[in-house]
Write a structure and sequence with these properties.
Blueprint lengths: L16 H18 L2 E2 L5 E3 H7 L5 H5 L3 E3 L5 E4 L4 H10 L9 E10 L11 E10 L4 H17 L6 E6 L3 H15 L8 H9 L26 H17 L4 E2 L13 E10 L2 E9 L3 H5 L6 E7 H10 L12 E6 L1 H16 L4 E3 L6 H10 L4 E6 H6 L1 E6 L5 E5 H13 L1
Helix pairs in contact: 1-5, 5-8
The structure holds histidyl-adenosine monophosphate.
């Protein structure tokens, strides 16, 4: 039997991959406007980084990591998300020593051993940003605005922004007790996952699709925030309003990673089966210290690119297509063929995308190839033209034909062809 790709992975073939390139280029453009700089970290890290960073009791670390021993008996994991690795790089490279806030972005594959379904893969891709070194609520709002603007600029409609404050660890400890008291009488009725969450992380019960009803009337975290948390959260909202970013406050929103403090947020859009979260993030003030660094606050987001493409397709949004082939070059006769090989290279050196036949096919088949490649021009060189130092150029959109000098084409193809 032939070998197939692992479950939950995708091949991105020509035709599809251009959409990815478009998303990536839009992400880079946006990061330039917001002044975030690219960082590239390894796709695998020491397992301990994720255990310490993402949280030992999260589903991600407990159940979903691709973990293995390398030949040196070190426990290694494929990164399930981008934040922990970027924090490690920030600490290891002492970026905290820089005078300005470090504003970083990344685009790349992440790995989670999850049950694949529409919008859920085992290898997926995130566009993420992380900003270190500021507790200013303006930067929480900036990050939320960046994600929202990204969706808008690529043409995604009906994206909603939900925000919450998950407080500080101290606030959460007191709130957890309240939640446990609330859920204690119905503990036996909770789903299996939530029964184990009851002790370890009762906030996640609020987020459970199965136990949603049992959580009705549960204590609201926003009423348990201390003054500093409330002030921060109010300021984030004020900044969002100032930028005209629509949002709703959802006090039941709990993220699946343990590192959040203060602001947590998610972007939602319907249209991928049961899944409606297309991105999320938040502030993580203790994480840098936990990873072993000079403690610095941070805030960031991660947007799933597969989910964005699924919603775009569902909404019928076409992403702009890249330019098609510039010139398809046809040589008729032995001498002309040799000359076209040279000319082809010279066109390419000038940045004109150019192609030819490599299978010795008749002119008719070559013209068909030019059509399939949507060539803007077909240039045909016969021995007669060659003798005169000329070549026939046909503009495919209009059918118009003209004769141009080969030497001119070799020197200034773009001007001659595209005017
Ligand atoms: P997350 O909510 O776990 O956050 O993931 C962010 C986004 O990645 C999700 O909203 C979703 O679009 C996408 N995603 C997650 N898992 C899958 C999957 N199995 N298949 C397809 N897409 C998926 C984080 O990862 C945090 N690191 C975000 C962050 C950055 N917070 C602060 N900074």
């Amino acid at each position: 039997m032939s070998i197939q790709k692992p479950k939950g992975t995708q091949d991105l073939l020509p035709g599809e991959v251009e959409k990815w390139q478009y998303l990536e280029s839009q992400a880079r453009k946006l990061c330039r406007s917001f002044n975030y700089k690219e960082v590239r970290t390894p796709v695998f890290e020491h397992t301990e980084l994720f255990a310490r960073g993402v949280g030992e009791t999260t589903d991600i670390v407990e159940k979903e990591m691709y973990t293995f021993l390398d030949k040196g008996d070190r426990s290694i994991s494929l990164r399930p998300e981008g934040t922990a690795g970027v924090v490690r790089a920030y600490v290891e490279n002492k970026l905290y020593g820089e005078p300005d806030v470090s504003k970083l972005y990344y685009i790349g594959p992440m790995f989670r051993y999850e049950q694949p379904q529409a919008g859920r893969y085992r290898q997926f891709h995130q566009f993420g940003v992380e900003a270190f070194g500021s507790v200013d609520p303006a930067i929480d709002a900036e990050v939320i605005a960046l994600g929202y603007t990204f969706y808008k600029e690529i043409g995604l409609r009906n994206v909603s922004v939900e925000i919450n404050s998950v407080g500080t660890p101290e606030v959460r400890a007191a709130y957890k007790e309240q939640l446990q008291q609330f859920f204690a009488p119905v503990r036996e009725q909770l789903c299996k996952d939530c029964q184990s969450r009851f002790e370890r992380n009762p906030m996640r019960i609020l987020d459970c699709k199965i136990d949603h009803k049992l959580g009705e009337g549960a204590p609201n975290i926003l009423q348990h925030l201390d003054e500093a948390c409330s002030t921060h959260f109010a300021a984030v909202q004020e900044h969002l309003q100032g930028m005209g970013i629509p949002f709703t406050v959802n006090p039941r929103m709990v993220r699946g990673l343990d590192y959040y403090t203060h602001t947590a947020f998610e972007y939602k859009s319907a249209g991928i089966g049961a899944i409606d979260t297309i991105g999320g993030g938040g502030r993580y003030n203790g994480l840098v210290g936990q990873i072993g660094g000079n403690d610095q606050p941070g805030v960031g987001l991660g947007l799933g690119l597969e989910r964005i493409l699924l919603v775009l397709a569902n909404q019928g949004v076409e992403v702009p297509k890249p330019d098609t082939l510039g010139v398809y070059l046809i040589g008729l006769g032995e001498a002309a063929e040799k000359e076209t090989a040279k000319l082809l290279y010279k066109l390419r050196l000038q940045g004109v995308s150019a192609e030819r036949d490599y299978q010795g096919r008749k002119i008719k088949a070559q013209m068909k190839s030019a059509d399939r490649m949507q060539a803007q021009f077909v240039a045909i060189l016969g021995d007669d033209e060659l003798a005169k130092g000329e070549i026939a150029v046909k503009t495919m959109a209009t059918g118009e034909q003209r004769t141009v000098r080969i030497a001119d084409l070799e020197e200034r193809a773009a001007t001659i062809l595209f005017g």
